[in-house]
Protein AAR2 homolog (Trichuris trichiura), 367 residues
Amino acid sequence: MASTSANMSQEEALRLFENGGFFFIPNLPAGFEFGIDYNSWKTGPKFKGVKMIPPGCHFIFVSCSGGQGGQAPRIGFFHYFQPKQLLLMRTFTDLVDETDQEKVERIRLDLKNLDQYLGAYPFENSKTWFSLTYLIDGALIERLEPEIKRISAQCDLVSKEFEELGASGQRVDRQNPVRVRYSDSQGLPIMHLKPGSEIRFTAIPSADLGHCTVSERTARSMDLGFALRGMLATYERPKQLLGELQFAYICFLVGHVFEAFEQWKLLIRIFCNCEDALGELSDLFAEFIRVLHFQLKMTPQEFFVDIVSSNNFLAMALFNFFLLIDSSDSASVQLKRKSAKFKNALSAKYGWDFDSVPDEYQPVIVE
């Protein structure tokens, strides 16, 4: 892991060393993948962590080498670093925080001697990372992260019998002569997500259509303002929901979590189908454009292909979004200007035509 401090003046490097955060991970074997944010490296034998971490939200992850030259799924976590904070992992195998403050303080007092084992945070990428996470704070991380505080690309599953019987369900003895096994209609084991391992994304409210007329049902199916307001009601500030959009994006971009990709798409669909909220929440929609602009700008080509090829999801969602803003009488002038600028930029970069109505884009009547 190369140090970026060689490209700085001594004064600047010292300032960053004294005010930035530190992350220590003990005994991480050489050859592992270690990453912070969207930077990753193969570890060497002397590697013990990262220094000069800018204050704010960061995502740290590790992955061991898999068979036949591959990599095992990443396991990582979000952390909001305070200035000068030192975060010590008890062990690399489960990424558990060290709670023994005496150990933490001993390392803090020995930082100068440990400097040779620490890679410097790559500051050339810090502004870009901030543009992807500037709405994620410590409170949002605490709300959304799994209860086990670790995020993995591989689902942590447990069998139904283990859920109901625990370890005793695995025993075969005089008291338990038959091992209990639950299976589905195809004879496969019934598996569930391990409690506490799922990311706690905000649930999408469902529309209550029981007492609606046909026209009201049609309006509810096309306009998702009710869903947006329902999700916003769970937050203290509207922009925190955009922080969740950023959180989901980082989870699938860096953490490779498919469920986060699905939440990201759901949130975009909601923001792009809220005609009746454009006037009331113009500032929020303008910020949504800013968030999405940075995300599309930084999405690697291999991820971008997946995003746009999923039933042309993104182009269709944005076509509707721009159409609603263009035709709205309540959207603010600032929102209309920002929308037009974003639309033109996407058309120029990707060749998307947002001015012609696609053949498949027809309203659906809900009976």
Observations:
- The first helix runs from residue 10 to 19.
